[in-house]
């Protein structure tokens, strides 16, 4: 414990001359060691506080996962393990350099100290950069929390069909609406269908338009009516949008009639233009059907008006213009595809909760990283100014401890969020 | 000793002057004083809301305001009193001033952090004011979801919950500072069991502040993002869990009650021994019971949720654990009573408050057991019985002890005596007014009067009127107290170094103390040993041994 504080009273003002070696030893401490030990105890209490601060989110994670494990099994496929793993590595490296910085300060190696602090800062920025990539990707694809959870989902697809890759023509399996009825009882099938037919009438409308002519001499304007022919497009009828049936057998239980993400795909103007259609559908059971169905998912352009002036697009005589199955492959789905198939049923109700937890935890962690960056920049400036000596290096030690905790929390978050099986 | 040291060096008021010397001060006493000022102002504001609530309830139906506004009044009363007054009351204000002095130390461990805590407190208070301007919260101070998720209330709730978040960090940093100060700044010779009991209590309190408050922090932060981003963790329409909010909230807010009561127990221990001129009976028991209360505080939060759909097993466990809280509480009460036994009791204002505390805390503690019993809680839950119970603990004990401590140390840190007669009168007024306010509420509650209701059946009118009259007596007493305390800064008699005959270290510091508290290193006397202290007229109490030394020098 601390020794007596004899010397303090005599000094009235705020000067630092206490016989201490470093000018950064505050005068209410007995000596450098007293200050260092107090700071160290303080940072440990602070870290305890930090752990409790995060603990509520971990408790929420445990409860939601215990109650709804299927959400977590389902939703973690949206996270990119690659980025998560890289970030884990980046943080571990930065933790190493932070620890090394403490060592360098103790040994008075100023160059190494500055280098280590700078590396830590660079790594921290790298971490946030990767997090930024992950977050923007999710924002684009509607993989967010609460009501903002609005991704494109192919429940039967071997890949997660997201808004972005859908319109770029990623391959996924497909069927037409009728297919659902044809094979309701086959086990191991997961079918989701959307069909969408729009009947559009293109009329060439005769009418007049005002034309203004200006007399170059007098400047007077005269308005004349000129006949024009214009194309007018009207939607005549629309095939009833099938509620996207999530027919799922086996492990995933009965269909989810209240969960129509595919329907939303078709509706979503971000995916396709109003007259276009995306989406569609299922994975056949190779054994039973003896064929593989695939279709290019793309946004078919609306039919062009002909000079007849009056057409119906997408009539039944042309078959399923949209969402027609195209038989492109006879190959078996890969083992990986089958595993994904197994995991990806229709999204369980409230899959959005996973992303509430994900964004709350990683967001709070990210704020801590950001705070750490400020602290390390402050330390870097002080290190360049040469403030730190083997006698006075407390702030580096405390910041490094803080940084280790931030690292440690990520090391818990990474498997809990990304590596769910 | 008093006259020789006090004049040698300027005291902490004289050492520097001007606005900046206060706004940027690192002196724990000045920071504590600024806290004290803010807390007393908040006390008057929170008290005004309480009176508005009580006046509205004077008669059934609309008396002075609508049901909607009434909801805001009781919410603001609760939020202001808890977050701005009682939680920081003893630790941040009085603890800040007295803790280093009781340790014989020059300052707290982290003076800059201490100043930051104060500014965080100011920010939190300003955000609560902003919330009032933005339409005011009406959720109750507990912010229960899903009611508090209503987006039409966002404008008021966002600043309010952010304010509470900031206030939480103010509290955490104060606790952290005190823990390190007590660990690292005890003088040579002062082991853990030579510490004044007030420091034990502040240590236990600080431990709870550091361990419980972060959970409140994340909870209100989540509520903040519920309103700003609609994240959905507590929102049942999105699959979230509103009861989880209650768990998180009470995981903090039960310990928060102890953050209010444990420091009160600490100062009462000091008051009772000083004013009965006897060493504390059962020192170690009181010390340990403070720490065990701090630890038990974390295990009983579920007793707030007996009717929130908790499992029967959880209810039983929480009920049983809640009973155990009675053990350390009773240990304290018995030890204080034993300290009083055959003591040379002096009924000065601080002691009147300490004795009030003893009575009110006993009532508050015992009625808590009624609520810990599962069967009776179903009947009493959310009635005025609960309201009366927690006011007995938080106000009858917490605030009364704060007032006792304030009068006890006022001469030390201001250098002025308050008017003793007026002080005693107000202390009696507080006691009578308090009981008149809350005893009828026990009866009303046991007969089924629900809490937070704007209207009531005519059969409750008499009790509500008694309660309102009590509240007015209480309000007037508190208002007069605040006025005479401020007036004493100019008009009060100059205080001697040791006006009460206290034996702990702070009475060796000059009155008021110097910048670093002790111009000469203080002497560590045996704790709570009053045999050496004698009264010496206007000089207050002096040590016989030192008097003899001084005389020998003169001759
Ligand atoms: Cu409780």
Describe this structure in words.
The complex is a heterodimer of chains A (421) and B (555). Mean pLDDT of chain A is 66; it is low at 1-19, 153-199 and 238-342. The longest helix of chain A has 36 residues, at 32-67. Chain A has 2 domains: 10-144 and 353-418, Cytochrome c oxidase, subunit III, four-helix bundle (Four Helix Bundle (Hemerythrin (Met), subunit A), Up-down Bundle), CATH 1.20.120; 151-348, no CATH class. Helix content of chain A is 45%, strand content 12%. Chain A contains 11 helices and 7 strands. In chain A, strand 3 (198-214) and strand 4 (221-238) form a beta hairpin. Helix content of chain B is 67%, strand content 1%. Chain B has 16 helices and 2 strands. In chain B, helix 4 packs parallel to helix 6 (154-184) and helix 8 packs antiparallel against helix 11. Chain B has helices at residues 2-6, 19-23, 28-56, 67-103, 111-133, 154-184, 197-228, 242-275, 283-296, 312-340, 349-372, 374-380, 384-414, 420-446, 461-491, 544-554; strands at 533-535, 541-543. Chain B has one domain (25-554): Up-down Bundle (Cytochrome C Oxidase, Chain A), CATH 1.20.210.10. The radius of gyration of chain B is 23 Å and the shape is globular. The longest helix of chain B has 37 residues, at 67-103. Chain B has a two-stranded antiparallel sheet with strand order 1-2. Chains A and B meet through helix 1 and helix 10 of A and helix 6, helix 7 and helix 8 of B. The site of copper (II) ion has 5 residues of chain B, from helix 8.
